[in-house]
Design goal:
Layout (H helix, E strand, L loop, with lengths): L9 E3 L2 E6 L2 E6 L9 H19 L3 H11 L16 H14 L19 E9 L2 E8 L6 E6 L14 E5 L7 E3 L1 H8 L7 E10 L2 E11 L45 E6 L6 H11 L6 E4 L2 E6 L2
Antiparallel strand pairs: 1-2, 2-3, 4-5, 5-8, 6-7, 6-9, 9-10, 11-13, 12-13
Helix pairs in contact: 1-3, 2-3
Length: 306
């Protein structure tokens, strides 16, 4: 629901406010369904362990180091505003990103990483032995860990990423391509023809994450192995007895003029008796055919021939 009010974001009472294309919208708050999947339980345990480590395992010197490092990092913009991170927020952000890919916890803030262009160039979908294969084309060297996210197969008309999940780290590329079929099929199954597949990649090193790079492709229908079963239109080939040097003709002509190889005009003056060849024009018009005619001065020319 679109409303007129000052920009807001988040929950307020029974409603949730959010911005969509710089327009303020509102919806009722609904308690999300707790699926309790294995990845959700694993990340919840990781968040609990990180929060406990900030209180109990870190020394005061380490906390002050995280506070000084977090003051140099800006938060994600919300309503076009952002600010520096607290020490605990910076510690949780770095270690939660590492816990997602199975890395151990670190207790000293790492140096900031500046990422280059994302090496993933293109998503290609192909069929090998009747099975769909998803491959990512790599255009450059992979530095650090490359995270791969996926979205369930959706309508081909969708344009943007929505509600995806972490699939795993990018497998080692071979011949410039990395096969992510097993990662995707294990999570969502093999997509049906006509559906669109969204893949998101993100660089990570020492807990620092780069920008998201989204790719998408539409799954094409498989080709049949036996092309003889295809319903293809019959192609009529020209006979050897027909001369290809004949003049082009539009329409139909009487039988007695089909043997000629060149089109010849028949001239008739107004008020005179029509020749026999010109009388056939009336029959052609009644049959729904239109012979090619042309007027010049006070004469009518009927082009007849092959």
């Amino acid at each position: 629901m679109i409303i007129l009010d000052i920009p807001k974001s988040g929950r307020c009472g029974d409603f949730v406010f959010y911005m969509r294309r710089r327009i303020l919208c509102r919806r009722r708050y609904v308690v999300p369904r707790n699926a309790r999947t294995a990845p959700q339980r694993r990340m919840r345990r990781a968040f609990g362990a990180i929060a406990k480590a900030w209180r109990e395992r870190l020394t005061e010197e380490q906390r002050q180091a995280w506070v000084a490092s977090g003051a140099k990092v800006r938060s994600q913009p919300r309503l076009w505003q952002s600010g520096p991170l607290f020490g605990a927020m910076h510690f949780e952000g770095i270690n939660s990103a590492r816990a997602r890919i199975g890395r151990e916890m670190i207790f000293w803030p790492p140096e900031r990483v500046v990422f280059g262009p994302n090496p993933v160039e293109e998503l290609t979908l192909s069929r090998v032995n009747g099975r769909l294969r998803l491959r990512l084309r790599i255009s450059g060297p992979v530095t650090g860990d490359l995270m791969v996210f996926g979205q369930a197969p959706c309508s081909a008309g969708r344009k943007k990423w929505r509600h995806g999940a972490f699939l795993g780290l990018l497998p080692a590329p071979q011949a410039g391509e990395s096969d992510i079929t097993d990662l995707y099929v294990q999570k969502y199954g093999e997509p049906e023809p006509g559906k669109k597949v969204f893949i998101r990649t993100r660089q990570q090193k020492d807990g620092w994450e780069g920008r998201d790079h989204d790719l998408s492709q539409v799954v094409l229908a498989p080709l049949p192995h036996n092309r003889a079963g295809l319903d293809l239109p019959h192609i009529h080939r020209a006979s050897h007895s027909i001369s290809v040097s004949c003049a082009m003709h539009k329409g139909a002509v009487p039988k007695q003029y089909r043997s000629t190889s060149q089109a010849t005009p028949v001239r008739r003056r107004r008020g005179t008796v029509c020749p026999r060849g010109v009388r056939q024009v009336g029959r052609l018009w009644r049959a729904g055919l239109r012979p090619e005619t042309r007027r010049k001065s006070h004469c009518l020319y009927l082009w007849r021939g092959s």
